[in-house]
Amino acid sequence: MTLKIYTKTGDDGQTGLFGGGRVEKDDQRVDAYGEVDELNAVLGMARAVELMPRIDEVLVPVQRDLFSIGALLATPDHAKMREQLDKARIDGERIGQLERAIDACEQELEPLTAFILPGGTPKSAALHVARTVCRRAERRVVALKREVPVPELVVIYLNRLSDLLFMLARVANKRAGAGEVTW
Asked: What is the pTM of this model?
């Protein structure tokens, strides 16, 4: 059986949550997982802009993580949320992998001595856009966390990810031979 893309169940301004329940489409939970979904799409665009296999190899698992984080945020049931977190493997080790990727970028780059303007190559510019979307997603998750239980690891993950995206943007410029414009 083929599933139709339109269900008409959201025509009244509500949407179904993963694991049950319905909320308004402007609910903080929907806003938070919507921002994570946008981030995932922007990362897909960043990967498509310019092929840089070593950077893209870092981004594909991140995109998978973001799908899992979106499912977790769309789950109001705490037990099911825990299942999603376990399934996503968003844990201290995964945060450590992001940190090691940041450290690897730092090894490749000159130390930062001034603020840089986002831009450079199309790949770098797309990664800078992803970084800002990541920060917005982080803000929405923090707002949601004030209202409902959200695992702290989700906030930590998004915080580290934005740092990683900044570093990958710098690496993309360096590998392409493009300089950075300071502020």
From this structure: 0.88
Task: Record the tokens describing residue 170, joined without a space.
Answer: 């710098």
For residue 123, is pLDDT > 90? yes
Residue 90's closest CA among 180, 21, 153, 27? Answer: 153
Q: Where are the alpha helices (DSSP H) in the chain?
A: 28-49, 53-73, 78-88, 92-108, 122-147, 152-175
Cα distances (Å, whole numbers) of residue 10 to 17, 47, 76, 151? 11, 31, 18, 28
Domains in the chain (CATH in brackets) are 22-175 (1.20.1200.10)
Please determine, for residue 91, whether its predicted confidence score (pLDDT) is greater than 80: yes
Q: Residue 78 is which amino acid?
A: H
Residue of 27 and 88 predicted with greater confidence:
27
**Residues with Cβ < 8 Å from 132, sequence gap 6 or more?**
118
